[in-house]
Amino acid sequence: MSTRGPKLAASMMCADALAMEPDLRALERAGIEYLHIDMMDGHFVPNIAMGVDLVRQIQSGTSIPLDVHLMVTNPEFWVPKVLEDLSPAIVAFHHEAAPHGVRLAQTIRARGVLAGVAINPGTAVSALDALLPEVDLVLVMTVNPGYAGQRIVKSAVAKIGELSERRARLGLPLLIQVDGNVSFESAPEMVALGADILVGGSSLFRKDVGIEEAARQLRVRSA
Ligand code: DX5
Ligand code: ZN
User: Fold this and answer.
1) What is the C-alpha to C-alpha distance for residues 2 and 105, in angstroms, rounded to an integer?
2) Position 88 in a domain
3) Residue in 23, 38, 41, 136 annotated catalytic
4) Ion ligand 2: residues, CB < 5 A
5) Residue 129 catalytic?
6) Of 3, 14, 172, 185, which sits 20 to 30 A from 205 (CA to CA)?
7) Could you read off the pLDDT of 173-202 as tens digits, one per residue?
């Protein structure tokens, strides 16, 4: 487990669905800090992924804490459900789907879970002004959510720096998480701008070098 540099969250939709257990063991050996769980409803994003039953099974097979990213149109339903059925460390809902974001954050925090709010590449940091003091984490999407393996949206990367400046100015203990084409090439800039948690998808679940070596390189390059 690293003591400096960003924490790594492994995006489990990129794990080998036919051999998830070996992937979990490799993630444990690599000291991965969170399992990033992409729950997609086919409405908020044009894809369906990772239902509660599958995630419960994954949870029972490891002690790595869960970081749940809800890409759903109705987080009012899914936040309580995830809190009830799973034992996550982080739950993030999308700002674009949440007119009552403060209430959702309160629901999450009331369970002793870190409350996160995610923003799409097309959403400005300023949209979160009222919400920032009410959450523990902001998840900056650097691709349009829905699929792994997409090209980075460059303009979204700059929002990490903007958020970092805001949390310093406001004195907030906010964590900044980045999700979407986090790679050996993109990670150093993300961390330099202020990212605390990097979500590793295609760049972490590498069949060629393997998960452990990919994690090691991500850490070395972003330390
Ligand atoms: C995309 C998901 C990501 C995805 C990342 O909508 O939220 O977590 O798995 O995959 P890469 O790192 O390949 O962009
Ligand atoms: Zn995600």
Assistant:
1) 29
2) yes
3) 38
4) 38, 69, 179
5) no
6) 3
7) 999 999 999 999 999 999 999 999 999 999
Nearest ligand 1 atom, CA 47: 6
**Could you tell me if residue 1 is inside a domain?**
no
Q: Please compute, for residue 139, the number of CA atoms within 13 A of its CA located in the half-sphere on the CB side.
A: 29
Asked if residue 119 is part of any domain, the answer here is yes
Please state the domain count of the chain. 1
pTM to 2 decimal places = 0.97
**Domain span at 22:** 7-222
Q: Is the CB of 67 under 6 A from ligand 1?
A: no
Is 179 a known active-site residue?
Answer: yes
Ligand 1 closest atom vs CA 145: 6
Give the span between the Cα atoms of 93 and 163, in whole angstroms: 17
Q: What is the pLDDT of residues 9-21, one digit of tens each?
A: 999 999 999 999 9
Question: Which one, of 133, 185, 189, lies nearest residue 157 by Cα?
Answer: 189
